[in-house]
Amino acid sequence: MNLQHERMVALCDTLGLPSMAQGYALAAQEAVRQEMAYSDFLEALLRQEVAARQVRKQSMLTRLAGFPAIKTLEDFNHDFAKGVKKSQIEELAGLGFVERRENVVLVGPSGVGKTHLAIALGYRAAQAGIKTRFLTAADLLLILTTAYTQNNLKSVMNRTIKAYRLLIIDEIGYLPMNREQANLFFQVIAAVYEKSSLVVTSNLPFGQWDTTFAQDTTLTAALLDRLLHHAHVLPIAGESYRLKHQRQAGVVPSAVGLHAVANSDGANRPLKK
Fold first, then answer.
1. Which secondary-structure segment (H or E) carries 199?
2. 69/81 Cα distance (integer angstroms)
3. Do the Cβ atoms of 214 and 182 come closer than 8 Å?
4. Which pTM value belongs to this model?
5. CATH superfamily of the domain spanning 73-235
6. Tens digits of per-residue pLDDT, 208-241?
């Protein structure tokens, strides 16, 4: 390393250009070999720095999003998710709904890919430089109730909810809320309404959401009004993807098999969920 190279690396470090500092030597050798003009050499270095910054930003946003795992839209299995058109997924993949501050609501039974799609959309957003946060409904309620108890709700709402352009709330409906929790959850929906985007998943049809929100039909109606006003609703049907191997082995009966058994004894009562 000659003295000029050392000075260039030091200047790059001072200016916060780590990729240029690291790649300067090889880029200089390549420029000499190709007899590049100085301006072309400088442009190549700057493009390298921009590309490296983009990768670092994507990595940081993905880490801060809190995804439980990385899922992609390309890996989504449409064979197990009935009712979702590929054209719908492709449209959402363009992330126009985030730019328009619209919501995505995924509704269906357990195991049909709701969480996969939610994470995949969030991951696509993070890769596009959109600040994203993933939370289960249970984790969100824990954060909110703790903040409320500590008289710190406004600060937590600003830091945990309003700071993100895309908020993903998974598993609404699995755990019933008391009235205080339902009110706190409503505050989240109201806070992001027409200001940012939501992706939510639920195992319950909308007509049963009041069973989750403390049996408060008025609050539930107001919440759904805001959530669905600018929303893409994707109802998903099918059997659980997680249990496909057990079904193939005969350990777990299929939904069709369960209904056949239920009807074989003359009982026409629907199965309890």
1. strand 197-202
2. 20
3. yes
4. 0.79
5. P-loop containing nucleotide triphosphate hydrolases (3.40.50.300)
6. 999 999 999 999 999 999 999 999 999 998 776 6
